[in-house]
Amino acid sequence: MMNNMEENIEPMQNKNRIFVYLLVFFFAVFIGTGLFLLLTSKSKTTGEKISTVKINENKNEDVDFPVEEPNQVDDASFTNRQENLVMPSVAPSNGSLTLETDLPGNQMNIGDMVELKLVADSADKNIVGYDVVMYYDSLAFDFDRALSSLPDYNIFTYKKGHFFTITGLKNLQSAPSPMVKATVATFTFTATKAGKFEFSLRASNDKDKTDLITDNTEVLVPALNQVMVDVK
Fold first, then answer.
1. CATH entry, 95-231, from 2.60.40.680, 3.40.50.2000, 3.90.700.10, 3.30.70.360
2. Least confident of 9-13, 25-29, 62-66, 111-115
3. Given a cut of 80, is residue 9 above it in pLDDT?
4. What residue ranges are annotated as transmembrane (predicted)?
């Protein structure tokens, strides 16, 4: 009987040993797999770092990525750039355009006509055309006519409110020549209202400008004047 019991115990011990071996094996595999996954996760985290930004609406906080700073320009560099800039200059006055009248004492009566002469000086430069902007009180004077005093010039006029614009163009067949204190045109007005009024040449009105054009298409900016008239 003892021999039978010993024979039954030995197979059971063998089974227990196999079970223990299997547990050790599975435990080792589990630990190895865990270590492998842990190492793999750390490697990916190290190789693929993602920057994040925390936004706080109430506070300004630093962020964990580099911020591109605007270009800084020192005073010396800024000064050098200013010196290298080419600024447009205002064209200086060249020659003159003036109004003249033969009224004694510049006085006249209502209903009388006044003739104004437009006198030009181009500072020895050849002129092929001119533009003139003249201001007058259209409620105190009626415009009658404008005539060219130079036979080789054609003039064109139009009114806009209190402004009167004249354009003179030289005939293409005529040789360019300077204007030397020459009367280029005359304008006639009739007084309709008593008072003191001005007739003045203006540098510009809206898009219209006063200038002299040379044969080299140079635009001259002339000096201008005004005439006061006393209507009784």
1. 2.60.40.680
2. 62-66
3. no
4. 20-39
Locate CATH 2.60.40.680 in the chain. 95-231
Give the pair of three-digit tokens for residue 197.
Answer: 């009024």
- The DSSP secondary-structure symbol of 105 reads G
Spatial contact of 174 and 129, defined as CB atoms under 8 Å apart: no
Separation between Cα atoms, residue 23 and residue 151, nearest integer Å: 126
Where residue 111 falls among pLDDT bands split at 50, 70, 90? Answer: very high
**Side chain identity, residue 23:** L
Q: Stretch 156-184: mean pLDDT, rounded?
A: 93
Read off the pTM: 0.61
DSSP secondary structure code for residue 70 in this structure: P
What tokens does 215 get?
């044969």
Looking up tokens 């635009």, which residue turns up? 219
User: In angstroms, rounded to a whole number, what is the distance separating the alpha carbons of residues 9 and 227?
Assistant: 142
Nearest-angstrom CA–CA distance, 74 and 91: 34
51 vs 73: CA distance, rounded Å: 30
Please identify which residue in the block is written with the tokens 């209202």: 193
8 A C-beta contact, residue 121 and residue 186: no
Return the ∠ at Cα 8 (arms to 4 and 10), rounded to 5°: 120
In angstroms, the Cα distances linking 171 to 23, 95, 108, 147 are: 118, 22, 37, 16
